[in-house]
Design a protein that fits this description.
The complex is a heterodimer of chains A (546) and B (365).
Chain A: H1 5-42, E1 43-44, E2 47-48, H2 51-58, H3 60-93, H4 99-105, H5 114-124, H6 139-162, H7 167-175, H8 180-208, H9 212-218, H10 225-235, H11 239-267, H12 276-279, H13 285-315, E3 316-317, E4 320-321, H14 324-327, H15 339-370, H16 374-388, H17 391-401, H18 414-437, H19 440-448, H20 453-481, E5 492-493, H21 498-506, H22 511-537
Antiparallel strand pairs in A: 1-2, 3-4
Helix pairs in contact in A: 1-11, 1-15, 1-17, 2-11, 3-6, 3-8, 4-22, 5-9, 5-13, 6-8, 6-9, 6-18, 7-8, 8-11, 8-18, 10-11, 11-16, 13-22, 15-16, 15-18, 15-20, 16-18, 18-20, 19-20, 20-22, 21-22
Chain B: H1 4-39, E1 46-52, H2 60-70, E2 72-78, H3 82-91, E3 100-105, H4 109-114, E4 118-119, E5 140-152, E6 179-182, H5 188-201, H6 209-218, E7 222-224, H7 227-234, E8 245-249, H8 252-258, E9 269-271, E10 277-286, H9 292-303, H10 305-315, E11 318-319, H11 328-333, H12 345-364
Parallel strand pairs in B: 1-2, 1-3, 6-7, 6-8
Antiparallel strand pairs in B: 3-10, 4-10, 5-8, 5-9, 5-10, 5-11
Helix pairs in contact in B: 5-6, 6-12
Classes of the chains: A mainly alpha (546), B alpha/beta (365).
Chain lengths: 546, 365
C-alpha cells in the first residue's frame, strides 16, 4: 500500500497537467475570444438582443441557409465515406509500389485554397470539360468538391485503424464460409466503427462550415450559415445577426458532437492491434490486383484531374508550354515581394502550428482515451468546437479579447495558434481510437511490474500510437500550409504565406499573374506532398515501423 | 521496443518542439514591447502601425526612403479586404491596433466615420487633390479606381455584336449570355456595379434599377461570387470561358499589357466608359493615437509625389494627386471615364443592406 502511493500521487499530478494545458490553451484562445465577440454582438445597450434571433427566424433566406447547411453536410459526409472507403481498405491492407508517395499525395487537395481548386473545377465541370455536362453552380459541384477535399480524412483516419486490425479475425470468418461482404459487414465494420465515426465527425464539421466551395462552385443560389455569418459581418456590418447565427452554429455542432462522443464511448472495442508490416501484403491473384489498381486508378483520376489542370495552367505560355511562370517566382515583380519568400513564411508557420497541435493534442487525446468520465467526454466535445466555428467568429474574437494582459492581437504567434486550434481535433481524432484499442491488460502488466503511469504511457502506448501521431502531425502541417480561414480575419504582420501570395496574384488582371498563381499553387502542392512524405518517413528506433 | 534509446530521443524531439513554441512566444512578446515603447514617444525611432487591406502594395525603395528621411518606422498590418478592415477598426476602437488606416473606400466610409474611428487631419498636400475626391475632413483621399465593363476585343471584332456603349445596351438580345458580373453581397466590384445601376436607373420612375436587373437576368447574365472567378474562369480574354463581357476595372487593360506572358503592344481587352462607378480610397489618423505628429507625416507621405507615382503599378488604381506622373502603360492603355457615377456615402450606408437583399430577390427570380 505504502509502496503504491508515489505513483498514485504522480498520476494525479500527471492528470492535472493533462487537463490544465489543453484546457487553458482552449480556454484562452478559443472560449474566451468567442464568448467576447458573441457578448459584444448580442448584448447591446445593456440587454440581451433577442431581436437578432427573431430576425434570423423571420428571414426566409437565413432559414434556407440553415436548412441547406445541415443537409448538404449530411450528404457530403455520407458520400465521402462511401467513395473513400475502398481506398482506406486498399491503403490499409495492401502494399504496392509507390505506396508512401500515394499516401502523401492524397493529402494534397486538403491544402489547396478553394479559389484555386474552384478554378480547376470550373474548367472540369464546365460544358467543355471531360464530363461534357455543365455542373457549375449546381449542388453536384459542391458535393464533388467536398468529397475531393475530405477524401484523405477518411482514407487516413479509417485506414489508420484498419491497418492495425488483426487480419486473422477476417481470415477466420472467411474460413468459416462467410462471403467477403459479410466478413466486412460483420467483422471488420464493427471493429472500425470508432474510426469511421471519428472521420465522419470531422468531415461533417468541415462541410458544415463550408465557405469557399459554396461561394465559388455553388454560385449565389446556395448559402451556408458560415457564408451568411461572413456576409452579415463584412457586407452588411450586422454584428447582432451574425452573432445569432454563430450561436446557432455552435449549438448545432455541439449537439452533433455530444451524440458522437456518447456513441464513441459505447462502441469502442479493445483489440489486439498488429504492426502494419505484418498486415500489409502484396495483392495476390487477379481479383485483388484488380481491386487495388482499380481503386488506385479511381483515386488518381478523381484527385489528380483537378490538380493536373492546375499544373497544366501553370505551364501554359501563350499558345505553347514553358517554365516561364516558375522562373519568375524568384523575382520581385513591379508589385510584389518575390513570391518565393512566401514559401519560407509558410514553412515557419506550419512548423510552429504542428508543434503546438501535437503537444496540446496528444495531451488531450491521452486524457480522453484513458479517463472515461463526464469530464473527458465534454472535453472531447470542446476540443472539436473550433473546427465547427465560423472563421469570422474566431478571428474577430481574437481582436476583441486578446489585448490584455499581453497584446497578442497582432503578434505573429497568433497565426500558428489559430491554425493549431483547427489542427488539434485531427491530432486527437487520429490518436484516440488507437489509444483506446490498446489493451488494458498490457498497460496493467506494466503497472503491476511497478512502472509509473508516465513510463507505461511512454513504453507501451507511445510506440503503438506513434504512427497515429505522425498522421495527425501531417494533417496539422497541411492545415497550416493551406491557411485556415480565421487568419484572414485577424490583423496579420506583413509576412505573406503561400495562399496569401496566390490570392494577391489572382486579384490582378494579366495573364502572367494568373500563370504565376498557378505555378505557386503547384509549388504549394509539391511542398505539402514532400513534407508529409518526410514526416511519415520519420522513425525513432523501431517506433515508426509499427 | 522497450529499450532505452527511443525514449531519450523522444525527449529531444519534445524539447525541440517546445523550443519552437517558446521561440514563437518570445517573438510575440518582443514585438508587443516595441509597440508600447515606440508609441509612448521614446527617443528611439517612432514606429507607426499602418493598418491596410490585402491589396495594399508599395515599392520597397519608396517606403525605405521615407523611413530613412524621417526616422519613422512603418509597420504594415494586413486586415483582409476593405470590409473586414473597417469592421476590425470599429471593433478595436477603444484599444486601436494601428495609428494610421489606409484603404477605407467610399462604400464603407460612413460606417468608419460614424463609429468615430478617425480623428480629423487636413494635410497641406490636399491642395493637389481635386475637390470631387474629398468627402470628409476626417479622411484624406489617396487614390481612386473605376469599376467598368471590360470587353474582349478579339471576341467582339468579327461578326459578333459591336462593343456595348451603355448599361442599357447590355439588356439587348444581341448580348444575350455574354456578360458575367460579381455578386454584390460577396464582391467589392460587384457592389460597385450594383451602385452604378442604382445611380443610373434610380429608385423611382417607370424603369427602376430592379427592372434593369430583371432584364439582365432575362438576358442570361452570369453571377459569380468574386472577381477572380469572373475574370479567370469565365471572361473569354483571360480564360477558357464563354463570356466576352465582364465587370472589372478601368485599369485592367494596362495590366494585361504589363503582365502579359509574351510582350504585346495592345491590350486584348477594352473598357466601356459609360456606367462606371468610382471607388475612392481614403487614409486617416486613428482616433487616440499616441504618435500624432508621426501619423501626420505618414498621411503626408501617402500624398507625396514619391508614393503617388508608385500607386498605379502597385495597386492598379489612379493616384489622387494631380501632380503624379502616370507610367507609360497607363498613359497609353488606361482610360479615365469622364463622368463616373457615384452615390453619397451616407446614402450607401443607409441602404446597402436593403439594396443587396432586393438585388438577391430579383436575381433569384
Amino acid at each position: 500500500m505504502i509502496d503504491q502511493q508515489p505513483p498514485n500521487r504522480r498520476s494525479r499530478v500527471g492528470r492535472l497537467v493533462l487537463i490544465a494545458v489543453p484546457l487553458s490553451f482552449l480556454g484562452y484562445f478559443f472560449l474566451y475570444p468567442v464568448a467576447s465577440i458573441l457578448g459584444i454582438s448580442l448584448f447591446r445597450e445593456g440587454g440581451f438582443s433577442f431581436s437578432a434571433f427573431s430576425a434570423v427566424a423571420s428571414r426566409a433566406s437565413l432559414r434556407g441557409a440553415i436548412w441547406f447547411t445541415v443537409w448538404q453536410a449530411v450528404a457530403s459526409t455520407l458520400l465521402t465515406l462511401v467513395v473513400a472507403m475502398p481506398a482506406a481498405y486498399v491503403f490499409a491492407r495492401f502494399s504496392f509500389p509507390g505506396k508512401n508517395f500515394f499516401r502523401a499525395a492524397i493529402t494534397v487537395p486538403f491544402v489547396l485554397p478553394t479559389v484555386v481548386v474552384g478554378a480547376a473545377y470550373l474548367a472540369l465541370l464546365g460544358p467543355n470539360g471531360p464530363l461534357g455536362i455543365d455542373l457549375r453552380h449546381t449542388i453536384w459541384a459542391i458535393l464533388i468538391a467536398h468529397v475531393f477535399y475530405n477524401y484523405a480524412v477518411v482514407v487516413r483516419t479509417v485506414g489508420g485503424l484498419w491497418a492495425h486490425l488483426d487480419p486473422r479475425l477476417e481470415e477466420a470468418a472467411r474460413m468459416l464460409g462467410a462471403s467477403r461482404w459479410r466478413t466486412f459487414r460483420e467483422v471488420s465494420l464493427p471493429l472500425l466503427r470508432p474510426a469511421i465515426a471519428a472521420a465522419a465527425s470531422i468531415v461533417f464539421l468541415f462541410t458544415f462550415t463550408s465557405f469557399g466551395v459554396i461561394l465559388i462552385l455553388g454560385g449565389f443560389e446556395y448559402s451556408t450559415i458560415e457564408v451568411e455569418i461572413w456576409r452579415q459581418t463584412t457586407a452588411f456590418l450586422d454584428l447582432p445577426v451574425a452573432g445569432a447565427l454563430a450561436v446557432l452554429q455552435l449549438v448545432g455542432i455541439s449537439s452533433i458532437l455530444v451524440a458522437y462522443s456518447r456513441y464513441q464511448e459505447r462502441r469502442s472495442v479493445e483489440q489486439q492491434l498488429r504492426p502494419v508490416i505484418e498486415i500489409a501484403r502484396l495483392p495476390s491473384g487477379w481479383r485483388e490486383a484488380g481491386l487495388v489498381w482499380g481503386v488506385l486508378g479511381f483515386t488518381g483520376l478523381f484527385l489528380g484531374a483537378p490538380l493536373a489542370v492546375l499544373v497544366g495552367r501553370s505551364l501554359r505560355v501563350g499558345d505553347g508550354y514553358g517554365l516561364d511562370a516558375y522562373r519568375s517566382l524568384g523575382k520581385a515583380t513591379a508589385t510584389l515581394v518575390p513570391p518565393v519568400e512566401a514559401i519560407g513564411n509558410s514553412a515557419l508557420f506550419a512548423a510552429a502550428a504542428m508543434a503546438i497541435a501535437l503537444i496540446v493534442g496528444t495531451m488531450a487525446a491521452t486524457l480522453i482515451a484513458y479517463h472515461r468520465n463526464a469530464i473527458s467526454r465534454s472535453f472531447d466535445v470542446l476540443l472539436m468546437l473550433p473546427l465547427g466555428t465560423s472563421a469570422v467568429t474566431i478571428g474577430f474574437g481574437f481582436l476583441v479579447a486578446l489585448d490584455a494582459p499581453i497584446d497578442l492581437r497582432t503578434a505573429p504567434i497568433l497565426v500558428p495558434i489559430a491554425h493549431a486550434l483547427v489542427a488539434i481535433p485531427f491530432v486527437v481524432r487520429t490518436e484516440v481510437p488507437v489509444m483506446r484499442s490498446v489493451r488494458t491488460r498490457l498497460r496493467e502488466a506494466g503497472a503491476v511490474l511497478g512502472a509509473p503511469p508516465a513510463r507505461v504511457w511512454r513504453e507501451i502506448d507511445l510506440p503503438l500510437i506513434f504512427r497515429a501521431m505522425l498522421v495527425g502531425a501531417g494533417f496539422a502541417l497541411a492545415i497550416s500550409l493551406g491557411e485556415f480561414g480565421a487568419t484572414s480575419f485577424i490583423a496579420r504582420p506583413d509576412a505573406p504565406t503561400l495562399p496569401v501570395a496566390i490570392f494577391r496574384l489572382l486579384g490582378r488582371a494579366g495573364a502572367a499573374n494568373f500563370s504565376q498563381a498557378m505555378a505557386l499553387s503547384t509549388v504549394l502542392m509539391g511542398m505539402t506532398a514532400v513534407s508529409i512524405l518526410a514526416i511519415e518517413r520519420f522513425r525513432i528506433g523501431q517506433m515508426g515501423e509499427f | 521496443m522497450l529499450g532505452k534509446r527511443p525514449e531519450q530521443r523522444i525527449g529531444r524531439v519534445g524539447a525541440m518542439a517546445m523550443a519552437v513554441v517558446l521561440a514563437g512566444c518570445s517573438t510575440a512578446a518582443t514585438s508587443t514591447t516595441t509597440t508600447t515603447t515606440s508609441t509612448s514617444g521614446a527617443p528611439e525611432p517612432v514606429e507607426i502601425v499602418l493598418m491596410t487591406h490585402d491589396s495594399f502594395a508599395v515599392s520597397d525603395e519608396v517606403l525605405e526612403t521615407f523611413e530613412d528621411e524621417t526616422g519613422i518606422e512603418v509597420r504594415i498590418l494586413r486586415s483582409g479586404d476593405a470590409g473586414q478592415m473597417v469592421n476590425q477598426a470599429v471593433l478595436t476602437k477603444d484599444n486601436p491596433l494601428a495609428d494610421v488606416i489606409f484603404g477605407v473606400d467610399n462604400t464603407f466610409l460612413s460606417r468608419a466615420l460614424e463609429a468615430g474611428v478617425f480623428e480629423p487631419y487636413q494635410s497641406p498636400l490636399l491642395a493637389v487633390v481635386p475637390d470631387d475626391l474629398e468627402f470628409d475632413p476626417r479622411v484624406t483621399p489617396i487614390d481612386f479606381g473605376d469599376v467598368c465593363i471590360n470587353w474582349d476585343k478579339a471576341y467582339l471584332a468579327n461578326g459578333a455584336p459591336p462593343p456595348p456603349e451603355s448599361l442599357l445596351d447590355l439588356t439587348d438580345p444581341s448580348y444575350r449570355g455574354l456578360l458575367v458580373v460579381e455578386n454584390p453581397a460577396t464582391s467589392s466590384p460587384g457592389l460597385a456595379f450594383l451602385f452604378s445601376t442604382i445611380a443610373t436607373f434610380g429608385e423611382s420612375g417607370d424603369y427602376v434599377w430592379q427592372n434593369y436587373w430583371e432584364d439582365l437576368r432575362e438576358n442570361d447574365v452570369l453571377v459569380t461570387s468574386g472577381w477572380e472567378e469572373a475574370y479567370y474562369s469565365y471572361f473569354t480574354a483571360a480564360s477558357d470561358g464563354d463570356r466576352p463581357l465582364v465587370v472589372s476595372y478601368a485599369s485592367s487593360p494596362p495590366f494585361e499589357v504589363i503582365f502579359a506572358e509574351e510582350p504585346i503592344d495592345e491590350p486584348p481587352t477594352a473598357v466601356m466608359t459609360e456606367g462606371c462607378f468610382r471607388q475612392i480610397e481614403f487614409a486617416g489618423i486613428v482616433a487616440g493615437t499616441e504618435a500624432r505628429p508621426a501619423a501626420e507625416q505618414v498621411i503626408d507621405f501617402l500624398l507625396s509625389k514619391q508614393f503617388q507615382d508608385d500607386i498605379p503599378l502597385n495597386m492598379f488604381v489612379f493616384p489622387a494627386s494631380t501632380d503624379a506622373t502616370l507610367p507609360p502603360a497607363f498613359v497609353e492603355h488606361a482610360v479615365v471615364p469622364e463622368d463616373p457615377l457615384s452615390l453619397p456615402a451616407g446614402e450607401i450606408e443607409a441602404n446597402r443592406q436593403r439594396w443587396i437583399e432586393e438585388w438577391t430577390e430579383v436575381m433569384a427570380g
